[in-house]
Amino acid sequence: LTMSFAMQKLCNFRQRRLDGYRFIFKNYQMVLALAFAIEEINKNSDVLDNMTLGFDIYNMDFRAWSAFENPFIWLSGQYNIPNYSCLRESKSVAVLTRTSGTTSAQIGQLLELYKFPQVTFGPFDPILSDHSQFPSLYQMAPKDTSLAIATVSLMLHFSWNWVGLLISMDEKGLWILPQLRDEMSKNEVCVAFEEMIPGSVFTEMSKIIGIYNQINTSSANVFIIFGDTETIADLMYSVPLLIKGKVCIMNSQWDLTRKRDFVLGSFHVPLIFSHHHSDISGFQDFLRTVNPSKYPGDYFLARLWLLHFNCSDSEIDCLTWENCPQNASLEWLPGQVFDMAMSEESYNIYNAVYAVAQALHEMLFHHTEEPPLRNRKGMVSSPAQLHPFLKHIEFNNPAGEQVIMDEKRKPEAEYDIVNIWNIPKGLDLKVKVGMFSPHGQQLFLSEDMIEWTIGTTATLHSVCSESCGPGFRKSPQEGKAACCFDCISCPENEIANGTERNQCVKCPDHQYANTERNQCLIRAESFLAFGDALGMILACMALCFSMITAVVLGVFVKYKDTPTVKANNRTLSYILLISLISCFLCSFLFIGRPNPVTCILQQTAFGIVFTVAISTVLAKTVTVVLAFKATSPGRTMRWLLVSGAPNFIIPICTLIQMTLCGLWLGINPPFIDIDTHLEHGQIIILCNKGSLTAFYCVLGYLASLALASFTVAFLARNLPDTFNEAKFLTFSMLVFCSVWLTFLPAYHSAKGKVMVAVEVFSILASSAGLLVCIFFPKCYSILLRPDRNSLHSFKNKANVKK
Fold it and tell me: Which residues are listed as membrane-spanning (predicted)?
């Protein structure tokens, strides 16, 4: 039995002159892989017992006008007319082809007429998977279902997001293009340019020139080429333009031997996706034994030896081997001429031969009891008999890998990532630098082994816009791809703590953004603390004034029976001094970290104790006026003074203020508030007054009491000096009103803890004004001028006034 073997441009056997013609020696490995597999099967009696496999080799041109030449010769004979003479008797059971999808489809239609099984060992073509059109065609290569994912994974690994696409203008290109677009879109990889490679580049030179110009002028340094060998080869040879500093990613259909005459270094191919396969044991040992003496009828092998081992040829068709090295081997040839490592297509040929052999084995086993097989000396009556067995074949090859002919059940391909080293010049050494597994979509890569361009190992950069660093966000450029953007600094109190951020993140209220806008820092709490210099000064002032007021109170209690104390209504003086102590002490409610209790007590305690103090001053002023008026004829003033009516001013005024404070607490009481925007890096903790209306009502009520006290005292300032303290009361209320009139603008212009300090200072200043203006003159008379603090002195003053 034989199995025909069609290769694409193995060599031109009709070419008799070697000068000016270059053989594609690397393709010869596929012939040897076929021979190796058949010899291995023939030696194994467990596969085909009492049957020997053979093969015929025919060259197959990829050009449409000559694609059918050798198939017709094989089917009908060298000089017979196709479809006129009967099909010559053939022992062939299957045809192995490597040609492109288009040519395979054309040949497949011819072979389908005779129901010949066609097994393609070239790249997988989804178009050929349509068994309604190609029922007799089988593909050995694994499916490229993960090729787009693997390619984009490589882009992501190197952070390339600006990539060009060069896709062949055929069915396979139209098949892979939407997959690439979809996968790139999902992973935010943008298409810098997209060009379709025409099928006939020689007739569309303007299109090819445009493609090269696009590559050279584009800012993308990485582009993906997907196409079959012929299309890419024509593209490479058509226009010798220099393309420098670019990275090319290609599928496994690239043939390095096709670029020998191209401008070196102008179109470097650094990374290729190739189907992963195991090593076949014994294949390289078999290659070492191959020579023209072993296969004397191999014309191509003879030419290979002649060109590379200096063998003499006496005639053009007669070769002599006297001058050939006795131990010459294919292993001596450089890698760019012949590669000892089994190629992907050679591996597919190896599996294809075993698949056909396994199908024959099952068919023979199925028909062992049928006489026709015996009668025909082991020959297969028709190749069509092989189809039912071939389409369902499934086995493990000698390397241990599973081979499945059913395309629906084929496993997803694993990819080796191959780099081409060109040092020294012309080496073209294939180096495996990584691998992609579709299971889990895992990419493994050794970056230090990659040669990007000739003599360069530094990874190239391919982005439309440079990455936005921490503290910046991306702002899309109008009318451009998503990968093109401007970098804008994050707004205040927002950060971007990584690169490529689309949005800035606002810091929480208790944190703030640093000046670089890449980190949120904890805000320092800010309030009028006892530990601060300002807080400490105010606290010391409040404590000192409280102690001074207590001392004054002590003096008045000690000298309560003296004329000075009695003449100034000692009960009201005691109340006023106690209220002033409370005013000084209520300042401590404003110092320290605010809490709900202190926030409520701050304003209410301040309002009530100051109401007591001001109403006491008012009562003292009214008492002075009544005391003077009581000396005049009439009963009303005397009755008011004797009945103690002025003493009711204090509780009535205080009750009104307490009512206002109660309404305040009931409607909208003060509460703890924080301000994160007032000072950078700080969180201001303060008491929010709640209802501002209530606050200003309390403050306004105090102002009306103070104004009333000032008015009464001012009108009584010219009363006789003996019993008159109206001048001191007038001056004290003048100081009090001046302080609080100054407080309002200062309070509203201050911020944070300074605002609180202004309020505390106003409390201390106004309270101190009352203490100093009213009580210091009396203490001076009591302690330093005791001669004035006697009844005799008062009588003398009274007589003098008379």
Answer: 533-559, 571-592, 604-628, 640-667, 693-716, 728-748, 754-776
What average pLDDT score do residues 265-288 get?
Answer: 82
Average pLDDT for residues 388-408, to the nearest whole number?
89
Residue 565: left if φ>0, alpha if ψ -120 to 50, beta else—which one?
alpha
CATH of the domain at 37: 3.40.50.2300
Residues 719, 622, single domain; the answer is yes
Residues 771, 644 within the same domain: yes
Find, among 143, 146, 148, 196, the residue nearest to 176 by Cα.
Answer: 148
Q: Are the C-beta atoms of 124 and 139 separated by less than 8 Å?
A: yes
Residue with tokens 């909208």: 668
Residues 738 and 712 in one domain: yes
Question: Residue 266 pLDDT > 90, yes or no?
Answer: no
Look at the chain and report how many structural domains it folds into: 4
Residue-number span of the structural domain to which 66 is assigned: 2-143+336-404
Pairing of strands 671-675, 682-688: antiparallel
pLDDT (0 to 100) of residue 550: 94
Whether 700 is in a domain gets the answer: yes
Asked if residue 456 belongs to a domain, the reply is: no
Taken in order 495, 501, 504, 510, is the CA torsion positive or negative?
negative
Nearest alpha-carbon partner for 502 in 188, 154, 151, 170: 188
C-alpha to C-alpha distance for 649 and 658, rounded to whole angstroms = 14
Interval 534-545 mean pLDDT: 92
- Tokens linked to 312: 């003499």
Token pair of 333 as six digits: 């040839």
Residues 10-60 have pLDDT tens digits of 433 333 333 334 456 777 888 999 999 999 999 988 887 778 888 888 776
pLDDT in tens, 419-429: 877 665 555 67
Note whether 517 and 539 are same-domain residues.
no
Question: What b/e sequence results for 468-477 when a residue is b if at least 16 CB atoms lie within 10 Å of its CB, and e otherwise?
Answer: beebbbbeee
728 within 8 A of 691, measured Cβ to Cβ: no
The distance of Cα 586 from the centroid of its chain, to the nearest Å, equals 56
> Sign of dihedral through CA atoms 40, 46, 47, 49?
positive
Q: What is the pLDDT of residue 429?
A: 75
Query: Is the domain of 715 the same as that of 793?
Result: yes
Task: Please name which of 504, 477, 412, 347 lies closest in space to residue 33, comparing C-alpha atoms.
Answer: 347
Q: What is the pLDDT of residue 381?
A: 60
Rounded Cα gap, residues 701 and 673, in angstroms: 26
Domain membership flag for residue 527: no
Q: Which amino acid is at 166?
A: L
Tell me, yes or no, whether 636 and 725 share the same domain.
yes
**Shared-domain flag, residues 122 and 156:** no
* Residues linked to residue 224 through DSSP beta bridges, in sequence order: 165, 249
pLDDT of residue 82: 54
- For 22, counting Cβ atoms within 10 Å of its Cβ (0-12 exposed, 13-18 middle, 19+ buried), the class is exposed
- Kindly state the helix (H) or strand (E) to which residue 656 belongs, with its residue range: helix 649-667
Which of the listed residues 522, 552, 585 is the one where a domain comes to its end?
522
Query: Would residue 283 count as lying in a domain?
Result: no
Q: Which two tokens stand for residue 216?
A: 């050279």
Measured N-to-C along each axis, helices 28-43 and 344-366 cross at an angle, to the nearest 10 degrees, of: 30
Q: What is the CATH number of the domain that holds 562?
A: 1.20.1070.10
The percent helix, strand, coil of the chain (3-state, each to 5) is 45, 15, 40
550 and 657 in a common domain: yes
pLDDT at 232: 67
Q: What is the DSSP string of 522-585?
A: EPEEES--TTSHHHHHHHHHHHHHHHHHHHHHHHHHHTTTSHHHHHT-HHHHHHHHHHHHHHHH
DSSP code of residue 631? T
